Amino acid sequence: MTTRIKKIGLAASLALAVLGVSQPYAAPFDADTVELRIGYSAGGGYDTFGRLVARHLGRFLPGNPDFVVQNQPGGGSLKLTLLTAASKANDGSLITMANSSMATFPLFNADAAKYDPTALTWIGSLANETSVCVTTKASGIETMDAFMAQDFVVGATDKGATTYQFPALLKNLFDAKFRIVTGYPGGPEILLAMEQGEVQARCGYSWSSLKGSAYENQFNRIGQLGLVRNKDLGDLPAFYEMIEDENERKAAALVIAPLAFYRAFFAPPGMDPEVAATLRDAFTEMTQDAEFLKEAESLGLDVDAMPGEEIQKLVAELMASDASLVERAGELLE
Length: 334
Description:
By secondary structure, the chain is α/β, with parallel strands linked by helices. The chain has 13 helices and 12 strands.
């Protein structure tokens, strides 16, 4: 699915200037068209966030470039991440939106993830996310005890995605009996499988996608996953708090950490630092813009942005994690 977001015309540009909307950029930005690729199928949370950005980011870039949106699902966004990591389009004409777990996946599966996350040009993210595990009403699985003890199926995209990593983490930490089935292109397909009784649960379900959606009250909420509790979820059990061993908690934290920069955007390696700064400045200003935030609210999207520079530093820190910690985290994802 491809959507073209048209340029703001001269009159609109003048209006922005009159209204005091500044457009800071550190260097000339020559791209007339920016291709925004999304690593998941259309209709899900990534698609919604990605298209929102496509409708607004051009207002804050020199020349107000057109945005073309393309969905390229595969491997929980690993396929697109690999293509981006190998791309030479480092002039700002290509931006990728992928699962933030791509920032650490090479630590756990170097054979499949042959790229360096620290070499990617991280532009910014839109969410400090909490993940939830839910089950269908028809499954009869309504409690944490039942979730851990019964044999049922959890739907997932691929081993690099949170829809696989988070249930795998729980299965290994707590000796749960459920099975994980991969191969779904994205969240909408997992939800369809749940409706059809093909699978009974989904973990790695972003609260920002579930909240306010038609599915919010259709599932049993079993638990939340994040390094801190989400106030919206009240007393819903927190999986991270259930981990008693300190070393296991540290290993689990390495897997969970990318939730802090969820809905992440990055560009290919080798970008000129000034062009990277232009993109990052534009992204940050967009996330503070009243028009952008108003539309996000109308879509039921909570925006909690992290600047690209901060993500770049955090990714470097995660990739430099202690080898024994990485090894244990990898075991918990098997």
